[in-house]
Design a protein that fits this description.
Number of helices: 4
Order of helices and strands: HHHH
Helix content: over 70%
Mean pLDDT: 96
Shape: elongated
């Protein structure tokens, strides 16, 4: 396995941990805390970095898994942007509507689906 691919896989695991921490904290507290914003932001940075590593190591910008990954990254970027916008409008720790929490959970679930499909592709390859 190419070293850059191994690096990308390691970094995407860090993104998984960071996103999971953010969504779990948000779901438990039913609010957006500074921890949630921090974990979401770190997750985005890890996700983008791992995506770039995987694109470079595979030599393919477009693939079936790549499209799933891009959409899942876009969902998490959207969730993070909506979280920052919500904090800007309502402040840190303000109560979240159930719909916002469900959106965040759905975006994360889709991201996990992309993560799992990538893991399966690595195992099968």
């Amino acid at each position: 396995m190419k070293p850059l691919l191994v690096t990308g896989i390691s970094i995407v695991n860090l993104a998984l941990i960071s996103y999971a921490a953010a969504i779990i904290i948000q779901s438990r507290n039913k609010s957006i805390t500074l921890q949630v914003l921090t974990f979401l932001t770190i997750g985005i940075l890890f996700d983008i970095t791992s995506t770039v590593c995987m694109i470079i190591s595979s030599g393919k910008v477009i693939s079936f898994h790549g499209v799933i990954g891009y959409v899942s990254l876009a969902a998490m970027i959207t969730d993070t942007a909506l979280s920052y916008a919500r904090v800007h409008r309502h402040g840190l720790n303000s109560p979240l509507p159930a719909a916002f929490i469900r959106w965040s959970q759905a975006a994360f679930a889709y991201w996990v689906l992309a993560y799992v499909t990538g893991a399966i592709l690595v195992i099968l390859h």
